[in-house]
Structure formats: structure tokens, C-alpha cells
Amino acid sequence: MQGGGETAALLQSLEVFSDLEERELMEVAQVAVPRSFERGEVIFREGDTGSTLYVVRSGSVSIHREHLDGRRLALAELRHGNMFGELALFSGETRSATAEALEPTALVALLSGDMQRVIRSNPDIALKMLAALANRVRRVNERLISQSFQTVAGRVASTLLDQVSARQYEGAGDREVLVRATQAEIASLAGTSRESASRFLATLEREGVVALGRGKVTVHEPERLRAFIH
């Protein structure tokens, strides 16, 4: 069980909770529920009922929608300090997307009743949640628009660069950056088929830009990826 102080510090790092007093933060932290998920484990599925908000403590989470033919449309990849599931708090409807752990992942879960009590005492939190949600929708729209004008190579290269940036934010160096993601996951984030993504990744490997492994890609020289973005 994670300590209330550690959870309070995590929550305070989110703009949504930044204006809460220490006492209020601790109250929220005390009712937060730690949850752990293994790689590939589904946190919730599109269409599920639910009113729990989650914050990523460690690991990463894929937010995506699934077509009837099994194809996935990746909407976001969330990491430490990112929040998701908040839409259900406001709409009361079923989940609009599926959330899945991309690696061993630790989350903090905040139940609807607890969050509603916090919001009643601090109405600005609701406005900040809606603003954060709007920003996420805007980023998804920008990515999808950008991808619609890019070649497959450009989409995959951009996706890899985004993955590299996330790892560097967590402490990875400028070279030899390990990205733990399958080729199918990279294809989903890039908005292309696995076959097309795999062909381009094989090209990158032949040119010495990356090394492919089972469920991972090592990017030797991230800056070389920019030459493929057009």
C-alpha cells in the first residue's frame, strides 16, 4: 500500500489538484485506491460502465478505440502524472474508449463518490478537469490531422520520436533509447497497419537507425528519424 503522503504529492503535481490545501490533498489521498496492472491487462473497455478516475503513478497506459474488424485507433499514451477516466464523472455514460496497460503499471484510483465530495467543496476542480480533457481532445485531433498528411514512414518516425521523448523525460540519454512497445502498438499509435509499420521498421533497422527485438525497439540515433518525417 502506497503512503498517503506519496499519493498526495502525486496528486498535487496535477494542475487539477494544485490549488487544494495540504489538508484537502491528504483527504483525497486517504481515499485513493492503489491499483496495479500487468502488461496487456485491460483497465476498462469501451462500453463499460464506470465512474472511477485514474492517475498514472508509474508505467504507461494506452487509450484506444477498436473497430469491429479488430483494428485499433490509438488516442493517447499516458505516463506518470497523467489522468484518465474523468469523462465518466461528468457524463454518467459508458466508457468512450479502452484503457490498457502497456507495461507493468501502477495507478491511483479515485472513486466517483469521493471525487464528487471534493468537487462540491472545490468547484474549480471540475473546470480544471474539463480543461484538461479538452486539451487531450485537441492533441488527439492535431495528431490525427497531422497523420492524414504524412506518409506511413513519416507517421511511424513521428511516433518513435514521441516515444523517445517520453523515455528521455524519464531519464533516458540522447542515444540508444529503449522503447518497450510491440510493432502492433507502434502501428496503432501511428495510425497505420502493422504490416506497413513493420516494413518501415525493417528499413530503419537495415539503415542502422534502430534495432528490433521482441516487444521492444532500440533507437540508436533518434535525430536520424527526423529525415523521414514529411
Quickly describe the structure.
With 230 residues, the chain is α+β, with helices and mostly antiparallel strands.
Write the layout of secondary structure elements.
Layout: H1 4-12, H2 22-31, E1 33-37, E2 42-44, E3 53-58, E4 61-66, E5 72-78, E6 83-84, H3 87-91, E7 98-101, E8 105-110, H4 112-121, H5 124-149, H6 152-169, E9 177-179, H7 183-190, H8 194-206, E10 210-213, E11 216-219
Antiparallel strand pairs: 1-8, 2-7, 3-6, 3-8, 4-5, 4-7, 9-11, 10-11
Helix pairs in contact: 1-2, 6-7, 7-8
Structure commentary:
The protein is of the alpha+beta class and 230 residues long. The chain folds into two domains: 4-147, Jelly Rolls (Sandwich), CATH 2.60.120; 150-228, Winged helix-like DNA-binding domain superfamily/Winged helix DNA-binding domain (Arc Repressor Mutant, subunit A, Orthogonal Bundle), CATH 1.10.10.10. The chain is built from eight helices and eleven strands. The strands form three sheets. It has a four-stranded antiparallel β-sheet with strand order 1-8-3-6. It has a four-stranded antiparallel β-sheet with strand order 2-7-4-5. Strands 9-11-10 form a three-stranded antiparallel β-sheet. A hairpin with a 2-residue loop joins strand 10 and strand 11 (216-219). 33% of the residues are buried.
